Amino acid sequence: MEFGYPRVSDVVSSRSPYVAKVEAWLRFVGLPYNRKNGAPSDSPKGQLPTIQHGSNTVSDSFFIIKYLERTYPEVVQQLGPEQLALSVAVEHLVDDFLNWGLAHYRWMHPKGWEGCQRCFLSDVPQPLRSFLLSHNKRPNLQKALVCQGLGRHSERDKLVMLDEALAALSAILGDKRYILGNQPCVADACAFGFLDNVLFDTECVGRELREAAEQYSNLVTYTERIRSTYFEGELTWEETPST
Ligand SMILES: N[C@@H](CCC(=O)N[C@@H](CS)C(=O)NCC(=O)O)C(=O)O
After folding, report:
1. Whose CA is nearest to atom 6 of ligand 1?
2. Tens-binned pLDDT, residue by residue, of the chain (243 aa)
3. Lowest CB count within 10 Å: 71, 107, 182, 225, which one?
């Protein structure tokens, strides 16, 4: 199986939280894969991640995991209805809300945007790189953030909303190793894709979101635990600048 998005960084597993989600889940359940670079335009849905499994192409992190669970039923965790409901609720809290906050603090926030112009499309020379990002990616995301709703609020109100969601995630995790106990599930893959970027991609994410997340020490140790358990030796987080 192959799936892709450029590993533009060795600081975080992927700068796409949805690619990081699929990669973390593949590692949680122990399914082997080859990671291939790709562009959203290569994907049938115009977004990454996409997997190639034999002759099947599957796009979108949600459908990729559903497809793999159908194909490899032995990896499906046996969860009770309440556990399953909690996992689904956390998946949507992260994928459909917190990741929009990440998009804002990465692409709209001045510090995040400054880093994006250095780190994204790094194979395209400047000033063409900044031109392409500021005429395409950034305005598209700005429109998407307004449609989603978060983009309509003041900076202060965005943080109030995001902080409440982070507090909820922290309370759900509590002092457990993973969201449902001792074994990581889909919800942990989602939470990791988001938190890994917020806490460790100091170059391309505005610091206010990182500081909001750092207030919840259990979220920090949980992210570090997933990094050291499932990405051991691959992510050089100790070299992350502390600015
Ligand atoms: N619902 C999708 C979201 C995927 C997504 O937003 N991918 C972004 C990268 S983080 C992308 O490919 N964006 C390109 C675009 O929308 O043009 C999933 O869960 O996979």
Report:
1. 47
2. 555 544 545 567 889 999 999 999 999 999 998 888 778 888 899 998 999 999 999 999 999 999 999 999 999 999 999 999 999 999 999 999 999 999 999 999 999 999 999 988 888 899 999 999 999 999 999 999 999 999 999 999 999 999 999 999 999 999 999 999 999 999 999 999 999 999 999 999 999 999 999 999 999 999 999 999 999 866 543 333 333
3. 182
CB within 8 Å of 210: residues ≥ 6 apart: 198, 199, 202
Is residue 151 in contact with ligand 1, taking CB distance under 6 Å?
no
Tokens of 145: 């953030």
Q: How far is the CA of 41 from the centre of ligand 1 (A)?
A: 11
| pTM, rounded to two decimals | 0.92
Which of 27, 105, 93 has its CA nearest to residue 65?
Answer: 27
Is 95's C-beta closer than 6 angstroms to any atom of ligand 1? yes
Nearest residue (by CA) to ligand 1, atom 14, is: 47
Q: Rounded distance, CA 17 to CA 99, Å?
A: 7
Q: What is the DSSP string of 27-52?
A: HHHT---EEE---GGGSTTSSS-EEE
Q: Hey, what are 238's tokens?
A: 């100790």
Cα(3) to centroid of ligand 1, in Å? 14
Identify which of 155, 162, 154 has the alpha carbon closest to the alpha carbon of residue 101: 162
Q: What angle do CA 180, 50, 170 make, to 5 degrees?
A: 25
Structural domains in the chain, CATH included, are: 2-235 (1.20.1050.130)
Instruction: Please say whether the beta carbons of 53 and 67 come within 8 A.
Output: yes
